[in-house]
Design brief:
- The protein is α+β, with helices and mostly antiparallel strands.
- It has four domains: 127 residues, Gnk2 domain, C-X8-C-X2-C motif (Killer Toxin P4, Chain A, 2-Layer Sandwich); 111 residues, Killer Toxin P4, Chain A (2-Layer Sandwich); 92 residues, 2-Layer Sandwich (Phosphorylase Kinase, domain 1); 224 residues, Transferase(Phosphotransferase), domain 1.
- It is 34% helix and 17% strand.
- The protein has 15 helices and 20 strands.
- The strands form five sheets. The chain has a six-stranded mixed beta sheet, sandwiched between helices. A five-stranded antiparallel beta sheet has the order 1-4-5-3-2, covered by helices on one side.
- Helix 3 crosses helix 5.
- The radius of gyration is 27 Å and the shape is globular.
- Bound molecules: 2-acetamido-2-deoxy-beta-D-glucopyranose (NAG) (7 copies).
- One 2-acetamido-2-deoxy-beta-D-glucopyranose (NAG) binds next to loops.
- InterPro entries: CR_Ser/Thr_kinase, GNK2, GNK2_sf, Kinase-like_dom_sf, Prot_kinase_dom, Protein_kinase_ATP_BS, Ser/Thr_kinase_AS.
- GO terms for molecular function: ATP binding; protein serine/threonine kinase activity.
Length: 631
């Protein structure tokens, strides 16, 4: 008996502009939203704990946005806090505390959010708002604007108004182009001897399309504020503001025209590409410039993030001139070599085969991005080199090698069930981190058993994340957007190139089936008459409720372990559902694995997959009722 209370508690915050010069936090007259169904007292406890956790994360990890959740007792709470990037961490914590102070007054609903000028906080009983802030909202969310209310004599002149109008359009266009979805800039208005400040920020980790859509609305609402000297737009997916009063330091602004010009330049490049001959010239110039820049750089310099820029020569020596004996593995991205640096540190060096100059240019950006990812289930990037014609990545060395060797390779049968379970959970946690905990969403695109490395204590470490775009495109494959491995890639991605975090969920499901069965996903099951792919085989056993038979025969399971294996097989099948929307997010998978939940009311449907002829396969009905008729 759930009481559907839809209550909108409007708590007006008193406007408190903190005027000390050491802080710029301002609070607007913004309503709190508190609604949904009546929360249990357990939900309220979980909420309080999640909100505390947000503040703890911000202040301990010195970041400006955080997510926290608590699912104790089956009353899940998912919370998110985000500050504007111009704040210091201390100002951020102050703002978030102010938001939480107001949020905890929400006692009649299980869904609440608060908008302040400098930050926002939100919690829900579900996690999908992390990726799509407007989920469950009718229309495009509760967006509203606040315009400063000044007398007519103080409004902007027509001329200035046009300048500000253009400025707001530029902010709209630039924000989704930035990887952090944040822009702050200023524009001098000479004839009025004034400066206009503007910024916009989309919700952390959402995709560019959602950000763009929100900025389109923000653009209209802010322009409707003109000729006021200040306007603000609040929405679940974005915040935007312009003001004549500075609300960030001049040195925190960025050159917006260069962000927009970047876009313009790439269009020029495409045109040049069509002309053909020009391309070569253009690339040569870019390459020369790139080389020159590299040479001027000191070798082995440590950047601010602690990643080393290695000297190519040192790595050549460390890998014994990239000798065959040092090869640890060959992969789509290039070969991996064992290297000994300074006669003591053993590392792995991955040599990327990148012919494309453009890809090489992107390399530095990508490396900076992935070198900041730290998680115990993700392989650490220790350094890199982009001198000469090769791109080299220096990675943690994992003596145990990759998971596939333990499932069907030389070390087959050496992993017991507990180790396998820890590996499954570790992969899920690593992916959840890439998708929703790191400030930029990273989709791996190529999850497979040979990309999972094992540490000395058999913990999973995901390799090759953030590198999919450097993979050479498979010329035999019609879809150039596809950079994955058949057998592990879901149909919508393998056939149409549709990319989302659910691509990784699908591949994860396949890897779990491999871990449970000790079988490779694409191997036909030759010892049976029925020639089936692993997913097909698993599904047919599941339909007959005998999916325990999928288990690797080298495993010796007790009764409770058998039950566990069956539940995890069901989770794996849930991960391989189509369409993608039916698949859980990786954060949800982590919870399911930890809680040992059964799927409950979720109905699984027959999965589809792509076979090695590049065809989508719909698994046919199994002959559940026929029993032993086919000898
Ligand atoms: C900010 O300045 C005020 C005085 O103007 C001072 O009392 C306060 O401690 C300062 N706060 C911080 C965080 O420095
Ligand atoms: C949650 O926090 C609010 C504010 O601190 C407090 O009033 C309330 O008692 C807390 N509730 C629980 C169940 O801890
Ligand atoms: C979750 O919340 C409960 C209170 O409901 C608290 O006792 C527990 O420590 C919290 N768990 C985590 C991991 O924060
Ligand atoms: C702001 O607007 C309100 C009505 O919305 C009006 O009563 C008030 O005088 C205005 N204030 C100024 C400073 O213009
Ligand atoms: C500003 O533009 C409005 C119409 O857009 C016009 O009515 C007004 O006269 C203009 N003011 C000046 C000072 O040009
Ligand atoms: C512009 O404004 C600044 C301060 O607001 C003032 O110092 C300066 O003299 C002004 N310049 C002109 C040309 O009015
Ligand atoms: C930016 O300016 C502020 C004050 O104007 C100063 O305290 C701060 O150090 C500057 N930051 C940088 C990175 O230059």
């Amino acid at each position: 008996m759930t009481v559907q209370l839809v209550v909108l508690v409007v708590l007006l915050l008193t406007k408190s502009v903190i005027s000390q010069s050491n802080t710029s936090v301002t609070y607007a007259d913004i309503p709190n939203h508190c609604r949904g169904s009546l929360p249990t007292s357990n939900f309220i406890r979980n909420r309080n704990s999640s909100l505390d956790e947000l503040v703890m994360q911000l202040s301990s990890t010195r970041v400006l946005s955080a997510r926290a959740q608590n699912i104790t007792g089956g009353d899940p709470v998912f919370a998110q806090a985000q500050c504007r990037n111009y704040l210091s961490v201390d100002q951020c914590v102050e703002c978030i505390n102010e938001g939480i102070f107001n949020l905890v007054k929400c006692r009649v609903g299980n869904s609440a959010y608060v908008f302040l000028d400098d930050c926002s906080v939100r919690y829900e009983a579900f996690s999908s708002f992390y990726n799509d802030p407007n989920v469950n909202e009718e229309g495009a969310g509760p967006g509203f604007s606040i315009c400063s209310n000044v007398s007519a004599s103080q409004t902007l002149s027509n001329n200035t108004r046009d300048i500000v109008d253009d400025f707001i359009s530029d902010i709209r266009d630039a924000t989704p182009k930035r990887s952090n979805l944040y822009v702050a800039s200023l524009r001098r208005i000479t004839n009025e001897n004034a400066t206009m400040y503007a910024m916009a920020q989309c919700a952390a980790n959402i995709n560019k399309a959602i950000c763009q859509a929100c900025m389109d609305t923000a653009n209209i609402k802010l322009k409707a504020c003109l000729p006021s000297r200040e306007g603000k737009y609040f929405d679940l997916a974005c915040f935007a503001k312009y003001s004549e009063t500075s609300f960030f330091n001049d040195n925190q602004t960025m050159d917006i025209t260069s962000i927009l010009k970047g876009d313009h330049l790439s269009k020029v490049a495409i045109v040049a590409g069509a002309i053909g001959g020009l391309v070569f010239l253009l690339l040569t110039i870019v390459l020369c410039f790139f080389r020159r820049r590299k040479n001027s750089k000191k070798t082995e310099q440590e950047d601010s993030k602690g990643t080393l820029n290695y000297n190519y020569e040192d790595l050549r020596i460390a890998t014994n001139n990239f000798s065959e004996e040092n090869i640890l593995g060959k992969g789509g991205f290039g070969d991996v070599y064992k290297a000994t640096i300074d006669e003591k540190n053993v590392v792995a060096v991955k040599k990327l085969q990148v012919q494309d100059v453009r890809a090489k240019e992107e390399f530095e950006n990508e490396v900076t991005l992935i070198s900041n990812v730290h998680h115990r289930n993700l392989l650490r990037l220790l350094g890199w080199s982009s001198e000469g014609s090769d791109l080299l990545l220096v990675l943690e060395y994992m003596a145990n090698g990759s998971l596939d060797h333990f499932l069907w390779g030389s070390k087959r049968g050496t992993l017991d069930w507990n180790q396998r379970y820890e590996i499954i959970l570790g992969i899920a946690k690593g992916l959840a981190h890439l998708h929703s905990e790191y400030h930029v969403k990273i989709i791996h695109r190529d999850i497979k058993s040979s990309n999972i490395l094992l540490s000395d204590d058999f913990k999973a470490k995901i390799a090759d994340f953030g590198l999919a775009r450097f993979q050479p495109e498979d010329a035999t494959h019609v879809n150039t957007k596809f950079a994955g491995t058949l057998g592990y890639a879901p149909p919508e991605y393998a056939l149409r190139g549709v990319l989302s975090d659910k691509v990784d969920t699908y591949s994860f499901g396949i890897v779990v089936l491999e871990i449970i069965s000790g079988r490779r996903c694409t191997d036909m099951n030759c010892d049976r008459p029925s020639m089936e792919y692993l997913l097909e085989h698993a599904w047919k056993l599941y339909e007959k409720k005998i999916h325990i038979k999928l288990t690797d025969e080298t495993l010796d399971l007790n009764e409770s372990q058998q039950e566990r294996v069956m539940k995890i097989t069901e989770i794996a099948l849930l991960c391989t559902q189509s369409p993608a929307a039916k698949r859980p997010t990786m954060s949800e998978v982590v919870l399911m694995l930890q809680e040992d939940q059964s799927l409950g009311k979720i109905q699984l449907t027959r999965p589809t997959f792509v076979n090695n002829q590049n065809r989508r396969v719909h698994i046919g009905p199994s002959k559940i009722n026929i029993g032993v008729s086919h000898v």
